[in-house]
Specification:
3 helices; single chain; elongated; Zinc ribbon domain-containing protein; two-stranded antiparallel sheet; mainly alpha
Amino acid sequence: MELLDKIGKKATKTYKVTAEKTSKLAKETKLKIAMSMNKSNISDLYEEIGKKVYEKYIREEKIEIKEELLELCAQIDILASEIEEARAEILHLKDRKQCFHCFYEMDIDAHFCPNCGIKQTKEEEIRENQEKQEEDEKKIEENKELVEESKRKETQISGKEKTSKDVEENIELEDDEIV
């Protein structure tokens, strides 16, 4: 009876460890997929920016970065921030950390970076992470506002275009009825 209890406890413990590791792997895989998709989206945005700049160059027009490319740049900032958050979460799942100086990946308990030798203190990490996170959140909020404002402007412009097209069509219909 005692042997069966030991086997049961060992099996339960093994199951819990396996389930935890499987869960971590699944979450890590989802995060890596999300990172990959965000990187692909960033690439697409870079391409779109390049096309816009080249079109302006060909037409010999002045490039107004603030007006024309701000929304795309804001989207890139948001995606880059999401990639960084996913990367940090993956490190956490692996019980790893990154050197704040050279960004080398190391064990979470390491006191010195094996790559550059810089002392790794938790206080510095916490402070830098908090500052970086606050900056990232601030940028994200600013960029979201810019994207929303740009979308509102596009909606207003497209609404005006439709209105002017409707007026032109109505004038043409009235001219046809008169003739």
